[in-house]
């Protein structure tokens, strides 16, 4: 079982890999009769593009209001059969997660803080009026799928098996109420770096016309609607020559919240670090909380509070802001080299990756890939 009170923000040893219970053995193996050949699989994972190639199988659990969770299975990856009246298609009742499986030098496979993802998945489910998947099933589905598709885990540098758990309202019903039929699935994709060009500073457009979420909204839940809301301003960012968009708070339009899919950090020249506080409209990132821990272990003062756009602009102009970076499961840590908006266009320091950004990314990925000790018990053995 997950530790009592486990949450995304747990900072201590989260779980012993020898003292755990999952439902992995309860997942029936319904194996594909037409899996890719070893040669085809190896060719696909040799140069993995993010989120475009998927393994031979997926894990699945079904829920009904009358029977609860059941029919746990690993089955061939393939299209879903949905009724045109499926509630998710009309009312957007769905959530998802993202985490990775890493192959270490000895061939073993591990994942990073999965109980934190399980806790956030449950929090998202509560906000979207979906049933909470037990943490044992969340992790059991990962263990079961990775065991079946183990050969799909790539071993090259900066590669991993991206895991995408998701849940949606599958009941065929046109009515605004929580669905009485729900499906949970887990799919997996061998991936390389999130940005095709590798780790390099990106340009950020600060959106002052659109908001990702607002007070009382779904910003703290990982649901598709939040990301759909970011797509139009993301297009605006592209049109302005930027790779990503940053959103301001909906209440005042003066405070940084997060990027379309990443949390943001500001490193000051005096060494202290700021990141927007979790106000309920910002996603509680697993990578975010891990970085806060690592930075504080270095002796840095990390302030979770209000990051005002005007203060950041002034700091960049005066040189008191040394680095800005973003973080998330997919991209890990991404340096920000330029911050632009309708009335400003500023380079972050010299536009290069800063030493704090580079160091914290290295520390985190060294733990994830088994190149460094894991004092927090963040890594979870899968195979």
UniProtKB/TrEMBL annotation:
It catalyses: L-leucine + 2-oxoglutarate = 4-methyl-2-oxopentanoate + L-glutamate; L-valine + 2-oxoglutarate = 3-methyl-2-oxobutanoate + L-glutamate; L-isoleucine + 2-oxoglutarate = (S)-3-methyl-2-oxopentanoate + L-glutamate. Keywords: Amino-acid biosynthesis, Aminotransferase, Branched-chain amino acid biosynthesis, Pyridoxal phosphate, Transferase. GO terms for molecular function: L-isoleucine-2-oxoglutarate transaminase activity; L-leucine-2-oxoglutarate transaminase activity; L-valine-2-oxoglutarate transaminase activity. Pathway: Amino-acid biosynthesis; L-valine biosynthesis; L-valine from pyruvate: step 4/4; Amino-acid biosynthesis; L-leucine biosynthesis; L-leucine from 3-methyl-2-oxobutanoate: step 4/4; Amino-acid biosynthesis; L-isoleucine biosynthesis; L-isoleucine from 2-oxobutanoate: step 4/4. Gene3D superfamilies: 3.30.470.10, D-amino Acid Aminotransferase, subunit A, domain 2. This is Branched-chain-amino-acid aminotransferase. One of its GO terms (biological process) is isoleucine biosynthetic process. Belongs to the class-IV pyridoxal-phosphate-dependent aminotransferase family. It is an enzyme of class 2 (transferase).
């Amino acid at each position: 079982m997950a530790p009592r009170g486990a949450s995304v923000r747990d900072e201590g040893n989260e779980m012993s890999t020898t003292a755990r219970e999952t439902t992995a053995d309860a997942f029936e193996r319904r194996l594909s009769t037409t899996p890719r050949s070893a040669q085809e699989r190896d060719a696909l994972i040799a140069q993995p593009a993010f989120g475009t190639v998927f393994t031979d199988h997926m894990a699945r659990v079904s829920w009904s209001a009358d029977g609860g969770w059941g029919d746990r299975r690993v089955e061939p990856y393939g299209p879903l059969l949905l009724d045109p009246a499926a509630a998710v298609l009309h009312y957007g009742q769905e959530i998802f997660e993202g985490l990775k499986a890493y192959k270490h030098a000895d061939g073993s496979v591990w994942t990073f803080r999965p109980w934190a993802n399980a806790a956030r998945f449950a929090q998202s489910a509560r906000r979207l009026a979906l049933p909470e998947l037990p943490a044992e099933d969340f992790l059991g589905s990962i263990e079961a799928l990775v065991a079946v598709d183990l050969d799909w885990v790539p071993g090259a540098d900066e590669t991993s098996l991206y895991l995408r758990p998701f849940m949606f309202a599958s009941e065929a019903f046109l009515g605004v109420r929580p669905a009485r039929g729900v499906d949970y699935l887990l799919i997996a994709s061998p991936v390389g770096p999130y940005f095709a060009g590798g780790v390099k500073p990106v340009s950020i457009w600060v959106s002052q016309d659109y908001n990702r979420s607002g007070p009382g909204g779904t910003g703290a839940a990982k649901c598709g609607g939040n990301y759909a809301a970011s797509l139009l301003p993301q297009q605006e960012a592209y049109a302005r020559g930027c790779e990503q968009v940053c959103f301001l708070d909906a209440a005042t339009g003066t405070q940084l919240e997060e990027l379309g899919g990443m949390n943001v950090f500001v490193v000051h020249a005096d060494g202290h670090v700021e990141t927007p506080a979790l106000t309920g409209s910002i996603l509680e990132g697993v990578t975010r909380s891990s970085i806060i821990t690592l930075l504080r272990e270095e002796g840095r003062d990390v302030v979770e509070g209000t990051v005002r756009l005007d203060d950041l602009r002034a700091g960049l102009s005066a040189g008191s802001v040394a680095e800005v970076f973003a973080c998330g499961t997919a991209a890990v840590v991404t340096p920000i080299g330029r911050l632009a908006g309708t009335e400003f266009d500023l380079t972050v320091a010299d536009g290069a990756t800063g030493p704090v950004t580079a160091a914290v990314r290295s520390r985190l990925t060294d733990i994830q890939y088994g190149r460094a000790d894991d004092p927090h018990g963040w890594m979870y053995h899968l195979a």
